[in-house]
Amino acid sequence: MRPAGPVGPPPAFKPPRNPASLALKAGGLVAIAVVSGLLWWLIRHEPETTPVADTPSKSGQYQYTLVEGPQVTSDCASKAYGDTKEFFGKTPCKRLSRALYTTEIGAHKALVSIALVTMPGEVTATQLKALTDKDGTGNVSDLVRDGTFKAQGAPKVSGDSAAYDSHVTGADVAIVLTDFYDKHSDKPVLERIATDALRLSGDLRR
């Protein structure tokens, strides 16, 4: 008779599975799957954002005082010079509004010319801007150049020391020219004024 072997430990007790616990875990997995699917759908169907046009700000850095105008006409060719005049001869504008403003920076005063040209459409407006942006192609005559504004000491805002900027909004082209009184020179400041003053073109649409 074989001797009895060592008695091993009793088998481990496995508690019965709880149906409620299993259901809870299964529900959690389903919820995770649903959320993941929803996030994927949102990413795939996110609407494309429409680029915002670069429009001049309505509130700016400098304050302006109207000193001349606005003067309004539909004959742009007679109010322009150089290649710009020839451009208007072939592509007439629908409306031109011009005005002059002054602004003061410390002890110095600048004269600012604003011209708002309304072309037949956006294509011709873009063509006009591209033309006036180039040197030596003429421009719309400001109210100093055409002799309308006769104030003593007014600077020639279309001269070499002046600053220029322009902007297209649909069929409208805003053109700014500015220079200091008393032959004061500060081109970086003039360029900031020219860019800031583009917002004044909104007043010429009225």
Structure description:
With 206 residues, the chain is an alpha+beta fold. A hairpin with a 2-residue loop joins strand 3 (95-105) and strand 4. It has four helices and seven strands. The protein starts with 18 loop residues before the first helix and ends in a 10-residue tail after the last helix. The strands form two sheets. Strands 1-3-4-7-6 form a five-stranded antiparallel β-sheet. A two-stranded antiparallel ribbon has the order 2-5. It has helices at 19-44, 83-90, 122-132, 187-196; strands at 65-73, 80-81, 95-105, 108-118, 139-140, 163-169, 172-180.
Helices and strands in order, then pairings?
Layout lengths: L18 H26 L20 E9 L6 E2 L1 H8 L4 E11 L2 E11 L3 H11 L6 E2 L22 E7 L2 E9 L6 H10 L10
Antiparallel strand pairs: 1-3, 2-5, 3-4, 4-7, 6-7
List keywords for this structure.
alpha+beta; 5-stranded antiparallel sheet; 206 residues; globular; two-stranded antiparallel ribbon; 4 helices
Radius of gyration: 36 Å
In which range does the helix fraction lie? 25-40%
Biggest sheet, strands in spatial order? 1-3-4-7-6
The N- to C-terminal Cα distance equals 121 Å
Estimated structural class: alpha+beta
Biggest sheet statistics: 5 strands, antiparallel
Query: Quick check: average pLDDT?
Result: 82
Strand content: 15-25%
Tally of extended strands?
A: 7
Helix and strand pattern: HEEHEEHEEEH
Give the gist of this structure.
By secondary structure, the chain is an alpha+beta fold. Helix content is 27%, strand content 25%.
